[in-house]
From TrEMBL:
It comes from the Bacteria. Keywords: ATP-binding, Nucleotide-binding, Transport. The keyword Ribonucleoprotein does not apply. Residues 5-246 form the ABC transporter domain. This is ABC transporter ATP-binding protein. One of its GO terms (molecular function) is ATP binding. PROSITE patterns: ABC_TRANSPORTER_2 (PS50893). InterPro entries: AAA+_ATPase (IPR003593), ABC_AA/LPS_Transport (IPR051120), ABC_transporter-like_ATP-bd (IPR003439), BCA_ABC_TP_C (IPR032823), P-loop_NTPase (IPR027417). Pfam families: ABC_tran, BCA_ABC_TP_C.
Amino acid sequence: MTPALSIRNLTKNFGPAEIIRGVSLDIQPGERHAIIGPNGAGKSTLFNLISGLHWPTGGTVALHGQTISCLAPHVVNRMGLSRSFQVSNIFANMTVRENVRCAVLWSLGTGYSFWRNIGNLKAAQRRTAEVLDLVGLIDKAHLPAAALPYADQRTLEIAITIAGGADVILLDEPTAGMSHSETERAVALIEKTTRGKTLLIVEHDMSVVFGLSDRISVLVYGEIVASGTPDEIRGDPKVREAYLGDEAEDLPLTGGAA
């Protein structure tokens, strides 16, 4: 089976600083894969390389067998990969509906045109409503995005990420800054909205990681030091010593929530 994502010997230098140092990783279609590691490990840089925001110093990234390493982010997105960011990346002065509709347009083959009345694009309106209903924001569709509470802004970003119909989804710390109850709702939303898709997630909340993931990779100083099932990662002495520590005792034994 061709991996949904195949990363081979990926490196990234910023001047003399080596941030990503020879990462190789295959993620299979439909897999939920988490990247964990200490601050400064290179997790967001890895996401930027995969999504085209940065180009690698060396190595390759392939999406369903097609090399995407040196393609612009919008090209990568149109090939079926979409991502969110650590800090909410929304159009604050646009409505919730308008934010999602922007993400929908290109997926329907509809570019931007000064002369086109967007209200007449029934397919875009229908898909926008479907996404807003799926994430639970349909009743807030008319509100400016800036007026949403923080957790709802993160929900909106997930809605934007999935709106284009990409089958490979990258989520960068989707529950950062949330309360326990907000995190539980976010995890349920991620499970629902990415069902049947390939998910790659960076997350610091270990309960989220171990409860959601089929496989986990540990990134330390730009290198993958361990990769395996949640049980394997939880019991790996090197991982426990270097990263998880005593926290591992309280983590769920299995991942891959249905």
